[in-house]
Specification:
InterPro entries: FAD/NAD-bd_sf, FAD/NAD-binding_dom, Ferredox_Rdtase, Ferredox_Rdtase_adrenod. Keywords: FAD, Flavoprotein, NADP, Oxidoreductase. This is ferredoxin--NADP(+) reductase. The chain has 460 residues and is of the alpha/beta class. Helices cover 32% and strands 22% of the residues. The chain has two domains: 201 residues, Rossmann fold, CATH 3.40.50.720; 210 residues, FAD/NAD(P)-binding domain. It is built from 16 helices and 18 strands. A hairpin with a 5-residue loop joins β12 and β13. The model has no long low-confidence stretch (mean pLDDT 95). Bound molecules: flavin-adenine dinucleotide. Flavin-adenine dinucleotide binds next to α1, α2 and α7.
């Protein structure tokens, strides 16, 4: 019987669901799957993106762990594609590869002052508060007044983490350095800015409601943003999500404020114009243009410029994928070009400007690096199904590796001195973090240092 030796690069939800779906799929060949990740712990953004005070979503890790524990998948953590293994290596040892490397960079915000000291990408801050091993341990939390640019859930996560009292995060798995950093923060006001009106936000109702329940934080919304036109009124009437958001915001309009020590302000119809320099290269103020509805579902500038003093700004305007060595990349969209998960390379006869229209046999994609950084964890499942369907149907086009044995990749990693961590290693780290948590009366305390993660995993 034919056997598919499959490499999956990226042990986030897209990679793990791809493995699970393939193992359960109807097929007339055997499979043997190796899952690689450059982090010593699996689960991608579920561990390093989803906010620590969202334990229900973090709980998805239990389902993903069930897949890994099924016994049919080998895990190679602490192995970076492009450094520790290359595409040529994979071609030598596997019949195919699925890239599920996600998106971890901040999308650019193209306004003057975006690179000033005190202007931060949301992705970097998220990595810090979720204990990502590759970001610095300390975060400069010195601002009293902060702007957060963006009207999606990441903007809400960032704002909530900035404005929430650190003690209210103690029941979560936040690392000790994150608690200490947040606990010392002098913040009083966080201002969230979005270009559109309240009926066009990308927040989900649940996440929005959650910020209204924070201890000792007043929600501030501004009456001038609630002058709805016909389209906005129709959106409230016809869309349940918009209806709940509108209801929540209007409840806050009626709430008494003034007693809390911290405030979260929501500013709508605010298009970022500039981040102002204090003369020494640091953020001093945020300038925006008031917008208005254009009657066609969008907004236009009114020419009215406003400004607010702030000492830090967080840009939560989206994530962006990273290019992988020897793998085609669409620099505009930040994704690996593909047709339903089959990776496409440029038409070689058309040079560097050619369209991505030639299937690159043996190479597949899944998750955020396939379709861009939008959508919830659940969406990566349907994504993986589509990719796996093609992988199965493409049997005749798979690579024909010269060393397909399961030992050969282990020998290669050992020969290169790569300190990979296996599934047992993850179990060791998991137990260790739970024990650290238990000793401190908490559910878990994450290990943040990469060397320590590797040492605990490998029981060294
Ligand atoms: C801040 C934030 C909060 C979120 N909150 C929620 C939420 O509450 N609920 C929800 O449903 N969704 C949430 N999401 C969305 C969710 O995280 C994504 O839908 C999902 O993680 C995408 O899965 P993925 O597997 O494509 O990518 P990822 O989860 O990013 O996994 C990619 C994996 O690839 C690995 N990798 C990358 N490059 C390499 C390389 N060169 N070599 C080896 N490995 C590599 C990475 O280490 C990572 O483990 C959130 C996203 C963000 C950014």
């Amino acid at each position: 019987m034919t056997k598919l030796r499959l490499a999956i690069v990226g042990a986030g939800p897209a990679g793990i669901y791809s493995a699970d779906i393939l193992l359960k799929a109807e097929r007339n060949f055997e499979v043997s799957i190796d899952l690689f990740d450059h982090l010593p712990a699996p689960y991608g953004l579920v561990r390093y993106g989803v906010a620590p005070d969202h334990p229900r979503i973090k709980g998805i890790i239990n389902a993903l762990r069930g897949v890994l524990d099924s016994g049919d998948i080998r895990v190679f953590g602490n192995v970076r594609f492009g450094v520790d293994v290359t595409l040529d290596d994979l071609k030598k040892h596997y019949n195919a590869v699925i890239f599920a490397t996600g998106a971890v960079q901040d999308a650019d915000l193209d306004i003057p002052g975006a690179s000033l000291d005190g202007s931060y990408g949301a992705a970097d801050f998220v990595s810090w508060f979720d204990g990502h091993p590759d970001v610095p341990r300390t975060w400069p939390l010195e601002a009293r007044e902060i702007a957060v640019i963006g009207n999606g859930n990441v903007a809400l996560d960032v704002s909530r983490m900035l404005v929430k009292h650190a003690d209210d995060l103690l029941p979560t798995e936040i690392p000790a350095n994150v608690y200490d950093g947040l606990n010392a923060s002098p913040v009083t006001d966080v201002h969230v800015f979005g270009r559109r009106g309240p009926t066009s936000v990308k927040f989900t109702p649940l996440e929005l409601r959650e910020v209204g329940e924070l201890n000792d934080v007043d929600m501030i919304v501004y009456d001038e943003d609630f002058d709805y036109d016909e389209a906005a009124t129709a959106a409230v009437a016809s869309n349940k999500q918009v209806f709940v958001i509108d209801k929540t915001l209007n409840q806050w309009r009626a709430r008494e404020t003034g007693t809390a020590s911290r405030r979260l302000h929501l500013h709508f119809f605010a298009k970022p114009v500039e981040i102002i320099d204090d003369g020494a290269g640091r953020v001093a103020a945020f300038r925006w243009e008031r917008t208005t509805r254009d009657g066609a579902g969008g907004v236009v500038g009114t020419g009215e410029i406003r400004e607010i003093p702030i000492q830090a700004v967080y840009r939560a305007v989206g994530y962006f994928g990273s290019e992988l060595p020897d793998v085609p990349f669409d620099k505009k969209r930040g994704v690996i070009p593909n047709r339903e998960g089959q990776v496409l390379r440029r038409d070689p006869s058309a040079g560097t400007g050619g369209l991505f229209n030639q299937q690159m046999y043996g190479v597949y994609v899944s998750g955020w690096i396939k379709r861009g950084p939008v959508g919830l964890i659940g969406h990566t499942k349907s994504d993986a199904m589509e990719t796996i369907r093609h992988l199965i149907n493409d049997l005749g086009n798979w690579w024909r590796p010269e060393s397909p044995s399961e030992e050969s990749i282990v020998e290669l990693l050992n020969a290169r001195g790569v300190k990979y961590t296996g599934l047992d290693g993850w179990h060791n780290l998991d137990q260790h973090e739970l024990a650290l948590g238990e000793a401190a009366g908490r559910i878990r305390i994450k290990v943040v240092d990469r060397d320590e993660m590797v040492a605990v995993s490998r029981a060294e």
